[in-house]
């Protein structure tokens, strides 16, 4: 046990492990994540309904959704996708959480929305082409390594029609100042979030100052199994985002404030990004 805890306390190389699939596909944890997605008072898994409404309204005003082909990457239970469909978009939602997609499909049927939800990993599986708009919402971009981001941007460029838009959001560098290193050990850490039965949970937070990168690493010890979860989060400036887009052949069209839709001023809050595939 000493060796396990000693390893947990060590600072791993940046992005040396990637466990997002395990987090979102575990039978018990995925159910807890869905609960947080659907809780209008929680920001743990998705933004609150009024924030979702505001972003979709911004998309409708800024780009227009009616008649557009839209793919929502990491769509979860369809909170953004169904709202875009209500504005007349033809929406495909992709996610690797089958539980979230089951809920999304049920909601689409109940609301009589013609949605196309697909179980897929947007880093590996086939993606639709000929899209007017691709979205990636709630900081997914920040959890990816530089290599994964490069891969994803190339795949999104291939998805888009000339003149098509990529809309996403990222956490800003001033938010990194809110991250504190620490070590926590609790029985049933996070009020039983990680397992139905008894377990011990360990959480270690590391800061990588020069990269504006944080890691929350969890060790979940149950009677019959032990799990190691890595939650990476990188914090960006608009110039860094513009450089990554340009390297992928995409053009930065606008940086916007997620809360107002207006011009974003540097602060400890995420910002939205509107990128475009040039017509050339």
What is the gist of this entry?
With 280 residues, the protein is an alpha/beta fold. It has 10 helices and 11 strands. Strand 8 and strand 9 form a beta hairpin.
How would you explain this protein's 3D organization?
The chain is α/β, with parallel strands linked by helices and 280 residues long. It is 32% helix and 28% strand. The protein has ten helices and eleven strands. The longest helix is centred in the N-terminal third of the chain and has 14 residues, at 49-62. It is globular, with a radius of gyration of 19 Å.
Question: What keywords describe this structure?
Answer:
single chain, 280 residues, alpha/beta, Rossmann fold, 2 domains, seven-stranded mixed sheet, four-stranded antiparallel sheet, 10 helices, globular
Name the helix and strand elements from N-terminus to C-terminus, one letter apiece. Answer: HHHHEHEHEEHEHEHEEEHEE
**CATH-defined topology of the largest domain:** Rossmann fold
Q: Note poorly predicted spans.
A: none
Number of domains: 2
**Which percent band covers the strand fraction?**
25-35%
Question: What is the helical fraction, as a range of percent?
Answer: 25-40%
Q: CATH homologous superfamily name of the largest domain?
A: Vaccinia Virus protein VP39
How would you write the strand order of the largest sheet?
Answer: 3-2-1-4-5-11-10
Mean pLDDT: 95
| Count of individual helical segments | 10
Structural class determined from secondary elements: alpha/beta
Measure the end-to-end span: 59 Å
Name of the CATH class of the largest domain: Alpha Beta
What is the strand tally? 11
CATH architecture descriptor name of the largest domain? 3-Layer(aba) Sandwich
Rg, alpha carbons: 19 Å
**What gross morphology would you assign?**
globular
Largest sheet: 7 strands, mixed
